[in-house]
Write a structure and sequence with these properties.
The structure holds two protein chains of two kinds. Chain A is 20% helix and 36% strand. By secondary structure, chain A is α/β, with parallel strands linked by helices. Chain A folds into three domains: 191 residues, FAD/NAD(P)-binding domain (3-Layer(bba) Sandwich); 133 residues, FAD/NAD(P)-binding domain (3-Layer(bba) Sandwich), CATH 3.50.50.60; 101 residues, Immunoglobulin-like, CATH 2.60.40. In chain A, helix 1 runs parallel beside helix 2 and helix 5 runs parallel beside helix 6. The longest helix of chain A has 19 residues. The radius of gyration of chain A is 23 Å and the shape is globular. Chain B folds into two domains: 45 residues, N-terminal domain of TfIIb, CATH 2.20.25; 62 residues, CPE0013-like fold (Roll). Chain B is 18% helix and 36% strand. Chain B contains two helices and ten strands, in the order E-E-E-H-E-E-E-E-H-E-E-E. Chain B has a five-stranded mixed beta sheet. In chain B, a hairpin with a 5-residue loop joins strand 5 and strand 6. Classes of the chains: A alpha/beta, B alpha+beta. Chains A and B meet through helix 2, helix 4, helix 6 and strand 25 of A and strand 5, strand 6 and helix 2 of B. The complex binds iron/sulfur cluster (SF4). Iron/sulfur cluster binds next to helix 1 of chain B.
C-alpha cells in the first residue's frame, strides 16, 4: 500500500490551502482526493464577487479566488485525483477510494486532512407538506445548473431562506430573466450579509418577507404554487395569513450541514452545535494526525477564513510530521459562555512555541450591538475585545494572546456581552 | 425637499442613512454612525454602481459556460441592459482568466472579462 505523508480529502478551498501550507513547510508526498470533475469546491459556481477581501485584500469572484490557489497547486508536485470518491477512512489512517480509471484504491496517510465541506439542507430536512413535483431544488443546485452547466432551473421563482446563497440566487435568476416573486425568511432578521440584501434584493425590487414560511406545496408533475404564511415569534403559523403564490420553481436556502459521514465512520464524535468534530488549536481531531478544516468542521460565511483555518491545519500537520510539537502538561478547555453558541477550537493541547496568539472562531446567538468579547478563567478576566456589532450570520473572531494564558487555567470561557452594565444577557 | 433612504453596506449594522436633496443638491445627511456611512450614502445617491457577475456561452469548451464580470463597477441602471448584450455573446474555447470577452460595454469604458479558465473539450 502506498503511504503518503498527507492525504487530503476534498479539493475545495480548505483542502487545497491545507495541502499547499504543508508543502510550504517542507512536506512531500501529498495526495488530494476530490470526487468532482474539477477542483476548487463550490467556488467555481459562486461566480459573484465579494470573496478575498480578508485574505487577498482585494475583491474577487469565486472562480478567481479558487484560481489563485489552483494556480499555486499546479506549480507543485502535489498529486490530485479528481472524480474519485472516498468510501472509507479508518483509525489507522487507511483510505479506501473509488474511481473509474483505477477502480478501488487503498492508500495510507501519515496525516489526514478532512476537508469534505458541507452540503445543503433539503426539503426533507425541514419537512414542508404537500405534493412532490419537480421544480424544488436547493439554491446551490440551482446555482450549479445556472452557472456551470448552463440550464435555467425555471421561470417563476420563490426562494425559501434568506441566507447568502438564497439572496445571491435571487439576483442571479432575476438577471437571467426569471420572475423572482419573493424571498421568505422564517426569522425576524435576514441571515445574509446586509450588502447582499441591498445588492441582490433591493436593487431589483425583490421583496424579502421576514417571519414568513411555506406551509404547502402543490403541483402534479411540475410545481404549480406554494402556500406562504406568516409566523409569530414562536414560529407558529398565524391563522388567516396564508396566501397562494404561483411559481414553477422553489429554491431552498435553509442552511448547511458539515458532510461528516467519513468522520463518523472513524468513530470521531460530532459537536452538537457545529456538526463537525471536536478539535484542538491545530484543528487536530481526537485522533492524532487527523485534522479537519473548513466547512466540514463548522460552516463558515467567508471563504477567506476557510483558507486561514486550513493553513493552520496544514502547518500543524507539517509540524507533527517533523516532530516539532510538544503536548502541554494539562490541556485547556475553551467553552462557550453567555451568548456564544460555540467556539472553534474547543481545546488547547500543545505548547505555544512561537505563536503569539490563538485565533478563536465563534458564533453569537442573536444580533447585539456594542459588545465585548470576554475571555475568562473562573471569575478572572483574561482579556476583552470590543466589537461594534455581532450577528449570528457572521462569524466572530478574536485573537487570544498566548502570553496571557497561564498554566493553572484549565478552562477558558468565552462570552459576548453588552458593554455597559450588561443586562442584555440571556433570553 | 426629497428624502432618499440608503442602507449602508459598510458593516453588519446596516444603518439607514437619509439623504435630503433640494434642487438636486444634497442639503442634509443623517443616520450614519461613522464616516464610511456618509461617504457611501453620497456615492450611492449620486452614482450607484455595481460589479456585474454573469456567464457567457462557450463553444467546444470543457464546460458550456465561462463566468465573467465587469472589470469595474458599472452604473446600476445599466445592469439589465448589459445582461441583454452579454446574453447574445458566444465565445470559443479555450478562454483564459482575465481575457476581455466584450469591450467597452454600453460605452461605459468597462470591459467584460473572464473569471475562469475554460479549456477545450477533450477530443475537439
Ligand atoms: S454607517 Fe458606519 S456603522 Fe453604520 S452601517 Fe455604515 S459602516 Fe456600519
Amino acid at each position: 500500500m502506498k503511504v503518503y505523508n498527507m492525504v487530503v480529502i476534498g479539493a475545495g478551498p480548505a483542502g487545497i490551502a491545507a495541502a499547499l501550507e504543508a508543502k510550504k513547510n517542507g512536506i512531500d508526498d501529498i495526495l488530494v482526493v476530490e470526487r468532482d470533475e474539477y477542483i476548487g469546491g463550490i467556488l467555481p459556481q459562486c461566480i459573484h464577487n465579494g470573496f478575498g477581501l480578508e485574505y487577498f485584500g482585494q475583491e474577487l469572484t469565486g472562480p478567481e479566488y479558487a484560481f489563485e490557489f489552483i494556480k499555486e497547486l499546479k506549480e507543485t508536485d502535489i498529486e490530485v485525483l479528481t472524480e474519485t470518491m472516498v468510501l472509507d477512512v479508518d483509525k489507522n489512517k487507511v483510505i479506501t477510494a473509488l474511481n473509474r480509471k483505477d477502480g478501488v484504491i487503498r492508500v495510507k496517510g501519515k496525516t489526514i486532512i478532512l476537508a469534505m465541506g458541507c452540503r445543503e439542507r433539503t426539503r426533507e430536512n425541514i419537512k414542508i407538506p404537500g405534493d412532490r413535483p419537480s421544480g424544488i431544488l436547493s439554491a446551490g443546485t440551482a446555482q450549479r445548473y445556472t452557472n456551470i452547466e448552463g440550464y435555467m432551473p425555471g421561470e417563476k421563482v420563490v426562494i425559501l431562506g434568506s441566507g447568502d446563497i438564497g439572496l445571491i440566487m435571487a439576483r442571479r435568476m432575476k438577471l437571467e430573466g426569471a420572475d423572482v416573486k419573493a424571498v421568505l425568511e422564517i426569522m425576524p432578521f435576514s441571515s445574509g450579509l446586509v450588502r447582499n440584501k441591498v445588492q441582490c434584493l433591493d436593487d431589483f425590487d425583490i421583496p424579502l418577507k421576514l417571519q414568513h414560511t411555506i406551509t404547502r406545496i402543490e403541483g402534479k408533475e411540475r410545481l404549480k404554487r406554494v402556500q406562504v404564511a406568516q409566523v409569530d415569534k414562536d414560529f407558529n403559523v398565524i391563522k388567516g395569513s396564508e396566501e397562494w403564490v404561483n411559481c414553477d420553481t422553489l429554491l431552498l436556502s435553509v442552511g448547511l450541514i458539515p458532510e461528516n459521514e467519513l468522520t463518523k465512520a472513524m468513530d470521531l464524535k460530532l459537536h452538537p452545535v457545529t456538526g463537525g468534530t471536536f478539535v484542538n488549536e491545530n484543528r487536530e481531531t481526537n485522533i492524532e494526525g487527523v485534522y479537519a478544516a473548513g466547512n466540514v468542521l463548522h460552516v463558515h460565511d467567508l471563504v477567506d477564513w476557510v483558507s486561514e483555518e486550513a493553513e493552520i491545519a496544514g502547518e500543524a500537520a507539517a509540524n507533527y510530521l517533523n516532530d516539532n510539537l510538544t503536548k502541554r502538561k494539562t490541556k485547556i478547555k475553551i467553552s462557550p459562555d453567555r451568548n456564544v453558541t460555540y467556539t472553534v477550537p474547543q481545546k488547547i493541547e500543545y505548547e505555544f512555541g512561537d505563536k503569539n496568539f490563538i485565533k478563536i472562531f465563534m458564533r453569537v446567538t442573536k444580533p447585539i450591538e456594542n459588545v465585548k468579547v470576554n475571555f475568562k478563567y473562573k471569575d478572572e478576566n483574561i482579556v476583552s475585545f470590543p466589537k461594534k456589532i455581532v450577528m449570528p450570520g457572521e462569524m466572530v473572531t478574536a485573537n487570544l494572546p498566548t502570553a496571557l494564558i497561564k498554566d493553572h487555567m484549565k478552562e477558558i470561557k468565552v462570552s459576548i456581552v453588552k458593554k455597559e452594565g450588561e443586562t442584555n444577557g440571556k433570553k | 425637499m426629497e428624502k432618499n433612504d440608503i442602507i449602508c453596506t459598510g458593516c453588519p449594522k446596516g444603518c439607514r442613512v437619509t439623504v435630503e436633496v433640494e434642487n438636486e443638491e444634497i442639503v442634509n445627511i443623517e443616520g450614519y454612525e461613522c464616516p464610511t456611512g456618509k461617504k457611501y450614502a453620497i456615492d450611492e445617491y449620486k452614482n450607484p454602481t455595481r460589479i456585474l457577475p454573469t456567464t457567457i456561452r462557450v463553444k467546444n469548451g470543457e464546460f458550456p459556460l465561462v463566468p465573467v464580470k465587469t472589470a469595474e463597477p458599472i452604473p446600476k441602471a445599466l445592469l439589465i441592459k448589459a445582461m441583454n448584450i452579454i446574453a447574445k455573446k458566444e465565445v470559443k474555447a479555450p478562454v483564459k482568466i482575465g481575457d476581455v470577452l466584450i469591450q467597452d460595454i454600453l460605452n461605459t469604458g468597462v470591459n467584460i472579462v473572464a473569471t475562469r479558465n475554460i479549456d477545450k473539450k477533450a477530443g475537439v
